[in-house]
Amino acid sequence: MTDYGTEVLWVLILASLGLSAIAVVLSLSRRRHNQTPAIAYPGEDVASEAARKVLREFEKNGQSVDAALVTWSPDTLRKILADDLPDAQVIVVSNREPYIHNIKGNGVELLVPASGLVSALEPITRACSGTWIAYGGGTADRLMVDENDRVQVPPGNPSYTLRRVWLTEEEHQGYYLGFANEGLWPLCHIAFTRPVFRASDWEAYEAVNRKFADTVVAEARNERPIVLVQDYHFALLPRMIRERLPEAIIITFWHIPWPNSEVYSICPWRERILEGLLGSSIIGFHTQFHANNFTESVDRFLESRIERADAAISYGGQTTLVHAYPISIEWPAELLAKLPNVDECRARLRDRFGLSPDVKLCVGVERLDYTKGILDRFQALEELFTKRPEWIGKLAFLQIAAPSRGTLPAYKQLHDECHRYAKKINQRFGSEGYKPIIMVAEHHSQEQVYEIYRAADICMVTSLHDGMNLVAKEFVSARDDEQGVLLLSTFAGASRELLEALIVNPYDAAMMSEALQQALTMTPEEQRERMRPMREMVRNNNVYRWAGSMLLDAARLRKRGDLDRVTGTSERSPSNANNVISMFERMRKAAS
Ligand code: F6P
Description:
Shape: globular
Number of strands: 18
Distance between the termini: 62 Å
Structural class: alpha/beta
Mean pLDDT: 87
Helix content: 40-55%
Radius of gyration: 26 Å
Number of helices: 21
Strand content: 15-25%
Bound molecules: 6-O-phosphono-beta-D-fructofuranose
Largest sheet: 10 strands, mixed
Strand order of the largest sheet: 5-6-4-1-7-8-9-12-11-10
């Protein structure tokens, strides 16, 4: 070979070695960044600058970095389960069931309840083929289950098991209406309704939590299920499950706000509730603010060790992560495909309520609940009609109010006041064939609700206090025409994410009426400019990301627990093996 030939050969060998080295480094760095091979990598999914932005935002919120790098869908959840939590059975526990069977005439009617919790958890449970345990409150529920109290759902296209739990009248009264909804609900919401605490309600609450713990144990196929405990109905359940299934991963999500520790101190069973919740591996809230309030309550009432940098609380030899995971909705909403275009929806709704095409339509959709600010909304409308009479005859407000907890005095009173106030406004500003306020206190299906969102010019979400409020996100998701204006309360968790909404203080009627004026006169271009980023926000932060972030954190806990067991680094009893040890504790152990 000539000298020249030898030189060329060396150059080729070195170049190929260099390329292999780069490939190895790249593959190692990929592994380091993401231990979940099935999940897409940053470069494949998002532009690098956008990815860095999301990452920064996620790190700021103390959430898992992996979650920011993924395009979230039912498939992503299935992959996380298959790759990171193999053989893990997902069990969801909530009070409200996703499908209610009621007797109607000679037949059975199926009802999907008006509940943000249900609309968020349903697609998740479908994606995970899990088991959902809930109170069977429908009049035909017992007729529809098998000998094990199970029914396969969704009807017609079953993908998961609904296990119904039966409660006596007294249990339901004490646990649900009493302790949960007359005690904890007003305690956690700043709506100035006095909480009522009765010892008999507390006893029922404890007994029902125990009944659900028995059911979780009965439904668990092995010792290590992932149990997703939902909401304030089950504060005692996490510890009860932990005692019976020590190796379970228990993720508890508190769907409503958590009060500051001074307000929380009102509750006579405050320590018991905190102890119960700290049986969880992870406790999630919608906002960091509520997570902080929880941590402050623990700090004040329990002998515990709080590692603020790790967002971890150690209590009774076990550690619980306390994080913010903002809940969201399915994207794209499956039922959108079933609905006609926006013009058709507008025409249908105007036809249903006898509205002429030039009348602007403003809507409110929620359960009839005193936290939702319905009366405050009416007050703002009254103010608008008084100050700007040009809108009389040109604006109608449709209030959809699903009946809720109707036997409780506070709810009965609200129902009457809403009807009285709507009547007063209609008498003052209405005329033949024109009602400024149309109040429909009836249940509507999700499909009907989405049709209303699509038909509206303005949607008012003016809660006095709300953990998140998914109506705001649903309205945004329904508007694929990028039109419509959202008025959103600053006291709803959603206002932390939907920044382009018109953010209002529901206690300030004058301000809300001005916001209404702004919405009514907003150009289509501005509506689009505001709606587009909000849609992007909900699309990127859909409900699969909410659940996926928790599952990724759960996978990490499980891996860490398994590692501790193998290396013998855990001093804790096996019952705590799957709860995370704080970083501080780990560093101390490593150093000693
Ligand atoms: O999100 C709060 C919440 O209380 C959920 O727990 C519940 O499903 C929903 O509102 C509706 O309330 P209820 O189940 O009492 O009708």
